[in-house]
Structures are given as structure tokens and as C-alpha cells.
Amino acid sequence: MQVLESGQGEMIQPPDLDAFREWNRTQKTRQLVDKLMSEQEAISRFVYDGCYIGTELYGTVRCPMSLARELVRQGKKDLRVCGQGVLELDLWMAAGLVKKLDITYIGLEVYGTSYALRRAVESGQITTCVEWSNASITWRMKATAMGVPFLPTRSMLGTDTLKYSAAKVVEDPFTGIKVCLLPALILDVALIHVHRSDCYGNAQIEGISGFGIEMARAAKRVILSAEEIISTDEIRKYPDRTAIPYYLVDAVVHAPFGSHPGEMAYVHGRDEPLIKDWVESSKTAEGAQAYLEKYVYGVKDHQEYLALIGQERLDQLVEEREKREI
Amino acid sequence: MNDGAYTKTELMICVAARLFEDGTTAFVGTGIPMLAAMLAMKTHAPNLVPVFEFGGTGAILEYLPRAVGEARTFHKALVASGICDTMETAQRGFIDYGFLGGAQIDPYGNLNSTTIGDHDHPKARLPGSGGGNDVGSLCWKTVAIMQHDQRRFVPKVDFLTTPGFLSGPGSRDTAGLPRGGAPVYVVSTLALMDYDSGPGGTCRMRLKSTHPGMSVADVVANTGFELILPAQVEENPAPSAEELRLLRQEIDPDRFYI
Fold first, then answer.
1. Is residue A15 a part of any domain in this protein?
2. Could you give phi then psi for residue B256, rounded to 5 degrees?
3. Residue B235 φ/ψ, nearest 5 degrees
4. B65 prior amide bond cis, ω within 30
5. Closest residue to B130, CB basis, from A104, A122, A211
6. What is the rounded CA–CA span in Å between residue A112 and residue A292?
7. B53 is catalytic
8. What pLDDT is stored for residue A1 in this prediction?
9. Distance in Å, alpha carbon of A185 to nearest chain B alpha carbon
10. Does the structure show a pLDDT above 80 at B1?
11. What pTM did the predictor assign?
């Protein structure tokens, strides 16, 4: 198959599918092992300087914010980060922990461009930005989930997004049409927040699944945080609800309001004033630092963070949740 | 605000809302497209099927979403799946419209939301493609919604994030993009534009109708490239009292956007 065009972006994490198979053979237990631990232990055991890491879903929606804050507290640095982000990646960039990005979208959604991203990229602190679209980065995870080295797709063709990616264009040997080949993406670590999990990591997600199903299957290590820890009997009663099975998961962290200040569908709404606080604070490096001092470094763990937010506010967010009513 | 008075944003939302076709599927992005989709569903397009890229399809939009994955995007929806499902549905040819924004647009409807200046040493690092490139590649028709000035309507985008007609007639096909997809409209703060994309056309942007109070000269002066000017340029109807009531009282009562 002749390569017609090659994206000039760096392959930040070259995929090795046989090594990934070997990893899954030797490093992932088949047994039901209790993986319950704290944010501190999970981040300290599985996240390391220079690792290739991703988060799901994103900043204001079912996002592993308690894990993201703990990562900042532990100062894991030189991170190579994949995907889209809002508040979670903003915190990492503001703390100076990110070196390379496989970027699809990093911004503040309705509030516009991310100031933390602008400072980190424009100053050269982030050395490399490789461009992808939201679908293409997820299809890269899907390739890994399928155990194949690439997937052909019909997006990105003809654009600078492709030119600054690490994708390739070929002529399909079956139909003769041009297709964009997306290389498999294998994460060292994935952080995912879910509604419920048992202590082994059998996890249920309510509402949209975003790209959690694909990301969990494209990572060597998965750290799950969950609003609620449920019994394995509950999992066995509704096996059709298991979106992420235990054998993918390395750590299970009980984190109620783990997505705060973002929302959790059917559990609690988003904390608009706190989201706006970051938008305003992050306009300057000093402001961002002050925010980190107050909400990240200034508290020792997620429990202290929730105490800082206050029960009254949390109760109000529960009241504002999306409800299953017609 | 006096009766009959409205803001530029309200006008832009109303003009964009009128472009949604009843009974079609449409990808709806964050911001103005969400308000426009809600307004369309409350007026002429009650059977519109809104699709949000992270998995919400067929929601009843009672509360204005502030993010494309927010629970409001699958409020009383028919489907809550994931991004692979929605994007693969677009790749199969089932999504009729996509509504997009960007920092820059060129005469061929290509959009930039990645960088201003050189990619590796940018003057401004913008969010990136997000789902934009996929929407521009995989939907049948795309509509761009833009602030209208010379910095945004440029002869050549600094970075071609999302495909319009690329470099002109035939170039989407040459690049390998799915056959038949194309940009169809640009709604700006000044006017509505379409493209000279009929048989033998140039695929360049063409003024279609100006907003009330805006002259053709205003539009030309704020466009950084030569816009095709047809012999007849209509004026877009001003927002009706009912459109404004819906926007202010039902769609965005907290005035989050408007």
C-alpha cells in the first residue's frame, strides 16, 4: 500500500501491539482482586514522570477531577498527554507538568480559549503539539481496543489538522478511495470517573459514555474513581451495565463528587461559580497559582477539598442534577 | 430593552435558527448553535434531531446546555451513547447538518480553530479541532457561525483546521473526503452568506442577504477577501417578537449567552 501523504507530527507514543498483548498477558491479573485505594496511593503507584496519560470525559463532565488534583499535588511532571480537556488539563498545564500534547481540544468551552494552554504553548513550556480531531483520537483508542495497529477513516483529509498529525493517507486496496490511517494509541495510564464500581473495578456509567469504553481498553493502567462503591452482587445482577470490566482496571478510588466542579449526570449539577472562578483566576499565571494554592495544594486530599467547598453547596448541586423524569 | 430592539447576537441566533430544516439530523456545537437549535425546535423545526458529539441524540432541549457533553444534551433523549457512535453515524452519511464556529474563515469556507501564526511558534494557541474537523469532513452540509470582521474573514486561514471547499472546485474529492459533503452557509454578525457552488461554480463565498441596518458596503468593508456580490441582495427579516420572547424567556432566561 503506497503512502500518499504523511502527517509531519511526532508519534508521541509509537504503538507496539505485540508488546501490549504481552503486557495484557503478564501484567494484568485475571483474578478478582480488591483494588480499593486512596487517590494518593493510586496516583503514586501508577502515574510516573514522563508517562503518556489521558483523562475521560472532560473538565466539566464526568471528569476525574479528584485524581487530576492529586496528580498536581504529587507533582508528576513531563507528562505526555492525549486528548481533550477543560479544567483537568488546565490545572496540569498551570502547574507546569505537561511537556507534549496529542491535542484535540483544550479550551474553556463557553468561556473561550484556555489561558493556561496559551501560556504553556506560547512560552514553549509545552514543546510539542500534535493535532487530531475528537473522533480521530477516539478511533485511535478504538484501534488499540481492537488490538490492531491502525484504523482507516474518512476524516481529517485535505487539512492542516492531518498535516500536523501523525496520520497517513493511503489508497484503499479494496475500493481505491483515499483513506486516513489513524495509528493505534496506547496509553500508559488512563484516569476515568464513573458512577459506580465494585472493589474489583467492574464499572457502570450512566448517561453518555463519551470515550470511556475505548480509553479503558487502550491503556496499560486504568485508575478508576467512582461516585459509589457497590457490591459485586449488584454487578452480577446487571452484567449488561458493566461498561468497564475489572480486568482493565488497576485501582478503584471511592470519590463522591469526584468530578466537582464539573457535573455528574443524574448525581449532581455543575458548580458554575467555581468553574467561573477558574476562568477568571487562570487569566494570569499568578491568579492560576493562587487558585492552585487554595483548591489543590492547600488541601491534603479530596475529603478536605469537599469540606472546603462545603456541604450546603454540595447539597444544592445534588438538587440541580439532571433527573430521570418525563 | 425596548420592544423591537435586539442585540447582534440575538439576530445572529435567529438567522441561524431559520436554517435548521425540520425532520433532519444536525450536529450541534457549544454556544450559539445550541441556542439556534433550541429556537428552531420551538418554532419551525419541532422534528429536528439534535446530535451532540459525545453521545446525546434526540434530546428534548428544555434547558440550555453549556457544554457538548452536559446532561442537558441528553435530557429526555432517545439515545445516550458515545463519541464513536455519533461520529460513525456521521461517517455513514446519516447526519445532514453540522453547525460550526472558528476564529478564521476563508473564501472557501475553511475554518481555523488551531493557531494564529506559525503552528510550531504560534502567536496565539487556540483550542484545536475538537469535533470541528470531523463535522466538516463527515456531515452533508455545514453552516459556520462567525463574528464578522477583517481579522476573521481572511484570504487564507493561518491553519486549516476544518475543511470547507479546501482550495476550490473538486478539491474535497481529490483529498478523499466523502463525496457530496460541503459548506452551505455562513451566518455572521453582519449577514448571511452562501457559496457559488452550483455546476461550474467557483466554490467561493457569496453574499446572500444582509442583516437589518447593514449595507452591502458594511459587509464588504469587514471582509478581508473579495466576496461574490449577486445583483440582488435581500435583507434578513429582523427577529420577530415571538423569537425574542422564546430566546429571552424560555431558552436563555439567565442570559448566559444573550
1. no
2. -70, -40
3. -110, 135
4. no
5. A104
6. 21
7. yes
8. 82
9. 15
10. no
11. 0.97
Give residues with Cβ within 8 angstroms of B256, minimum separation 6: A110, B64, B66
CA distance A213 to A142: 9
The angle subtended at Cα B163 by Cα B158 and Cα B166, nearest 5°, is 80
> Measured between beta carbons, which residues in chain B are less than 8 angstroms from residue A114?
127
Residue type, B137: S
Half-sphere exposure of B208 (CA within 13 A, CB side): 15
**Domain coverage including residue A92:** 3-7+33-319
3-state secondary structure of B47: coil
Report residue B32 as a C-alpha cell.
450559539
pLDDT in tens, A184-217: 999 999 999 999 999 999 999 999 999 999 999 9
pLDDT over threshold 90, residue A139: yes
> How far is B117 from A322, CA to CA, in rounded Å?
42
> Is position A324 within any domain?
no
Pairing label, strands B49-51, B25-28: parallel
Q: For residue A144, give the CATH number of its domain.
A: 3.40.1080.10
Amino acid at A174: F
Give start and end residues of each alpha helix (H) in chain A. Answer: 17-26, 39-46, 65-74, 87-94, 115-122, 134-146, 160-163, 212-216, 232-237, 272-281, 285-292, 302-309, 311-319
Task: Find out whether B152 and B107 touch, Cβ atoms under 8 Å.
Answer: no
The count of CB pairs under 8 A between chains A and B is 191
Q: What is the pLDDT of residue A238?
A: 98
**Grid cell 453547596 in the structure block, residue:** A313
User: Measured between beta carbons, which residues in chain A are less than 8 angstroms from residue B111?
Assistant: none
pLDDT tens sequence across A251-309: 999 999 999 999 999 999 999 999 999 999 999 999 999 999 999 999 999 999 999 99
Task: Report, at the CATH architecture level, how domain B8-251 is classified.
Answer: 3-Layer(aba) Sandwich (3.40)
CA distance B158 to B204: 18
Rounded-to-integer distance, Cα A320 and Cα B27, Å: 26
CB atoms within 10 A of CB B76: 13
ipTM confidence: 0.97
